[in-house]
Write a structure and sequence with these properties.
The chain has two domains: 292 residues, Purple Acid Phosphatase, chain A, domain 2 (4-Layer Sandwich); 62 residues. Helices cover 32% and strands 27% of the residues. This is Capsule biosynthesis protein capA.
């Protein structure tokens, strides 16, 4: 039987608070045939030379920090996300150039349609696409057009053994995908995708085995720090996904294991070795995963769970933008508070208080 190994991790920005190697504590854990990660920053030399996007938080990292990414045999950066244009198109182009110079493969550079890359080792081939699925006007986001996805998957399905999608999607600082994300994930698996790996929530989310596919809704942060909100334990819980793709004649298998991770105060991921904390981690992950397939996983539950962190995070972002850009941002924030999505959020949150919906959330007991 032929085997191929892929390690996958969440959001990284290649920084620490003391300018040390972000991955010094887990470097050996990331060695495999392939390493897949979400690069949540631009990588440039001097950010003052670039136009800054009109945002509350703009992320950049010195290009010299790319030396820390020599972690696996083939390292793959996923760049289809909401920070890759933080310093304009020039910052984006410079980032791609610097990644290429460092022999790091880049996924997610498409502008308006899905594009697959092909990888092969040990007589096993897989197709990989990185897509930013957001209802935004950002240059690198793609409309959620499942017919387009189906056409592209049908084109390559017979050419490869496995199809993997890395999706930047959903909302930030929430431990659950939305029912809409679940619906989309199921449809993608039915179209022929074998593995879905999600990012963007900054929280670890559940895992679902659906039909012949596996959905990792979000891997959360991995080497990351938040500048617009105070980090919570949920921002610091993460994991390494160890995937093993197997093929024997016409038979194919996917096996996976989870290495539990906690990010320390220096933004560095560390393996959770403490028995009690490790047990609590997997209890929490099991709760998140079971919740997704439970009958209580409804829109109302999701909205009520989203409300607190969504409002706190966005209001903090508006405060930063008002301070940076002036009174016009205050007027924009007032309009934002009344947008249809938020009105729906307020409604479901108030109903959930009456029905005590939030009593069903998953908690991580760190003590």
């Amino acid at each position: 039987m032929n085997k191929l190994g892929i390690k996958s991790v969440g959001d990284i920005f290649l920084k620490t608070s003391n300018n040390k190697n972000p991955f010094i504590n887990i470097k050996g854990k990331l060695v495999d045939d392939f390493l897949l990660f979400n690069l949540e920053t631009v990588v440039i030399e001097d950010e003052s030379n670039y136009n800054v996007s009109h945002k509350s938080v703009n992320l950049s990292t010195d290009k010299n920090n790319l030396r820390y990414l020599n972690l696996s045999e083939i390292n793959i950066a996923c760049v289809a996300n909401n920070h890759i244009y933080d310093f304009g198109d020039n910052g984006y182009q410079e980032t791609i150039k610097n990644l290429n110079k460092s022999n790091i493969k880049v996924e997610g550079t498409q502008i308006s349609e899905i594009e697959f890359s092909f990888y092969k080792k040990n007589n096993i081939t897989f197709a990989l696409a990185n897509v930013y699925l957001q209802n935004t006007k950002l240059t690198n986001s793609i409309d959620i057009d499942l017919d387009n996805f189906k056409n592209e998957i049908n084109k390559i399905r017979g050419e490869v053994d496995f199809v993997i999608l890395s999706l930047h999607w959903g909302h930030e600082n929430i431990a659950y995908p939305s029912p809409e994300q679940k619906k989309i994930a199921h449809e993608l698996i039915e179209m022929g995708v074998d593995i879905i790996i999600g990012h963007h929530s900054h929280y670890l989310q559940g895992i679902e085995e659906y039909k012949d596919g596996i959905i990792f809704y979000s891997l959360g942060n991995f080497n990351f720090h938040h500048y617009d909100i105070k980090n919570s334990i949920y921002n610091d819980l993460s994991c390494i996904v160890e995937l093993e793709l197997r093929k024997s004649n016409n038979d194919k298998e996917i096996e996976y294991e989870i290495i539990p991770i906690k990010i320390n105060d220096n933004y560095q991921p560390e393996v959770i070795n403490d028995k009690k904390m490790k047990s609590e981690f997997f209890n929490y992950l099991d709760c998140l995963s079971n919740k997704i397939i439970d009958d209580s996983f409804t829109w109302r539950f999701w909205y009520s769970t989203l409300f607190e962190n969504y409002m706190r995070g966005n209001l903090n972002s508006w405060k930063i933008r008002i301070k940076k850009y002036g009174i016009k941002e205050f007027l924009k924030s007032c309009i934002w508070l009344l947008r249809p999505f938020n009105l729906l959020l307020y409604y479901h949150f108030l109903i959930s208080l009456i029905e005590k919906e939030k009593e069903n959330v998953c908690d991580f007991q760190k003590d």
